[in-house]
Amino acid sequence: MDVAYIFKNNEGIKAQVKQVEQNLKEFDTELQGKRNELKAAAEKLKTFQPGSPEYTAQEERVASMESKLRLDMARKRKELADREAKIYYDNYQHIAAGVKVLAQHYKINLVLRYNSEDMDLEKGESVIRGVMKNIVYHDEALDMTPGVMQYLDKVLVAGGQAAARK
User: Fold this and answer.
1) d(CA 56, CA 51)
2) How far, in Å, CA of 79 to CA of 85, rounded?
3) Are 80 and 24 in contact (CB under 8 A)?
4) Quick one: average pLDDT of 65-70?
5) Residues 98, 152 contacting (CB under 8 angstroms)
6) Which of 16, 79, 83, 138 has the most CB within a 10 Å radius?
7) Count of alpha carbons within 13 Å of 36, Cβ hemisphere only?
8) 162 φ, ψ (degrees, to nearest 5)
């Protein structure tokens, strides 16, 4: 079964990942606004006489803004990375459940993971992945990937409908 193919092509998983990416884009827009505020505060600092009370107060404001911005960035990036990891974790659990259902139904005792991606000479990393494949040949008729994709479509649609009702 090709797990990478499922993660790249399952509409439910792609929609979940796209939502996290959208949140990241929204945060980046918000972040740009905060950077502009910080830049304006730093420019304002130049208008004060070094050593004056106004300069010191503005310098503290700039330092505080910069510190808060860095902290906010780190927190948000961790939050988004955790959300993305949860998406992959939860969906891998769904994939494993689908494999189990199909394997038990068809009396299959062992399911191996493989990568169906063809090597592309123009992409070095693709060639390296291809050369490192554990499975050198497999019969396409024995591939469970389409069945697992169907299983996921049912599970994720049912889960999405249940979440929409809440």
Assistant:
1) 6
2) 10
3) yes
4) 95
5) yes
6) 16
7) 6
8) -65, -40
